[in-house]
Write a structure and sequence with these properties.
globular; four-stranded antiparallel β-sheet; about 180 residues; 6 helices; alpha+beta; 6 strands; two-stranded antiparallel sheet
Length: about 180
């Protein structure tokens, strides 16, 4: 890195906010680090500062996103409970997104830590594939392995019927609790 070209903290945070507000797809910390000529860890710190300033930034498995307030028609949300082994995760996520539904997050109830929630923001097959590959590549474990496969998802769609049909398909697949 050329230290003379590094952006100041304020300039980096402005870059991060502007980019996230303009982009609907996730942006990785590495992409920001390259643009700002700093390490990814510096970007992680900048994002933490922005979050502390109440900026609605979330970290997903694909990168950072800015949570815009929905415009126009209100989004419908529903929390569902599921249970399956790790091998059925791809099937579960694919069923949901194939019905036009976004998987916002996953939550497990841990006996010591209470509710543990991770943001997912998965809304199409490509994002399902990216998520599954990232789990495999990093040899990470699914949160649901902490709770014998039991977990919850917050689902979101533009119509309630989409969530209902996704839930029926999950029930048919033996995934929905």
């Amino acid at each position: 890195m050329d230290s003379s070209a590094k952006l100041s903290s304020a300039a980096r945070q402005e870059l991060i906010l502007k980019s996230l507000k303009e982009e609907s797809s996730p942006i990785t910390g590495s992409e920001f680090a390259e643009k700002a000529n700093v390490s990814r860890q510096v970007i992680v710190q900048d994002v933490s500062i922005l979050k502390a300033k109440n900026e609605p930034i979330i970290a997903t498995s694909q990168g950072y996103m800015y949570l815009h307030k929905p415009t126009g028609e209100l989004e419908h949300q529903q929390i569902i409970a599921c249970r399956h082994n790790p091998e059925k995760t791809e099937e579960e996520l694919t069923i949901i997104v194939d019905h036009g539904v976004t998987v916002k997050d996953v939550t497990v109830e841990h006996p010591v830590y209470g509710d543990l929630t991770a943001s997912l923001m998965i809304s199409n097959r490509h994002e399902v594939e990216q998520f599954i590959n990232k789990i495999k590549d990093t040899q990470a474990v699914y949160l649901s392995t902490l709770t014998e496969g039991i977990h919850m998802h917050t689902l979101e769609a533009d119509r309630k019927e989409k969530i209902e049909t996704a839930c029926l398909a999950l029930q048919t697949a033996g995934i929905l609790l």
